[in-house]
Design a protein that fits this description.
Strand order of the largest sheet: 1-2-3-9-4-7
Number of strands: 9
Number of helices: 1
Structural class: mainly beta
Radius of gyration: 15 Å
Largest sheet: 6 strands, antiparallel
Order of helices and strands: HEEEEEEEEE
Strand content: 35-45%
Shape: globular
Helix content: under 10%
Length: 133
C-alpha cells in the first residue's frame, strides 16, 4: 500500500543483523511499545507503527475513512485487515477487502488502495525491505 523506499538498516524495533551478531532475531512485534509516526502519500494521510526484522518491514497502518491513493505502487505486500473496508485497485480489476480478510499482492503488480467512507482502515502489512545503494 505504499511506494516509499526503506533501507535495510534495522532500528530499536527490529534488526536484520541478529543472525550475524548472535543476538536473537525479532520474532514478536509489540506494537504497543512502538510510537505512531505520520504516514502520507498523495491521497492518503494516516499513521503507522513500523518494525524491521529478517529483511522485512512489518507495519500497523491506520488510514482515514475515504482515503484514495493517487499513485500506483509496484512493491508487493501481504497483510490482514483489522478494521474498515477498502478496495485494492489493479490495472485490470479491483478487489474489495474487509475485516478478517488477508491479502497478498505480488511484486511488480501495479496497484493502489481506496478506503470506504464511514470508518478508518487499520491493516497489518508485511513487505520486503528494499536495499538502497
Amino acid at each position: 500500500m505504499s511506494t516509499e523506499t526503506e533501507t535495510e538498516t534495522g532500528d530499536q524495533h527490529g534488526s536484520r543483523t541478529g543472525a550475524q551478531t548472535g543476538d536473537p532475531v525479532l520474532v514478536g512485534v509489540d506494537f504497543d511499545l512502538i510510537p505512531w509516526e505520520k504516514w502520507q502519500k498523495p491521497g492518503a494521510e494516516g499513521r503507522v507503527k513500523i518494525a524491521y526484522t529478517q529483511g522485512l518491514r512489518v507495519r500497523l497502518m491506520e488510514l482515514p475513512a475515504g482515503f484514495d491513493e493517487h499513485e500506483w505502487c509496484l512493491r508487493g505486500h501481504q497483510g490482514y485487515v483489522l478494521q474498515g473496508e477498502f478496495t485494492i485497485h489493479f490495472e485490470d480489476r479491483s478487489v474489495p477487502c474487509r475485516p478478517g480478510m488477508g491479502f497478498v499482492i505480488p511484486d511488480d503488480e501495479k496497484h493502489r488502495s481506496q478506503g470506504a467512507q464511514g470508518e478508518p482502515t487499520v491493516v497489518y502489512v508485511v513487505d520486503k525491505v528494499v536495499p538502497t545503494a
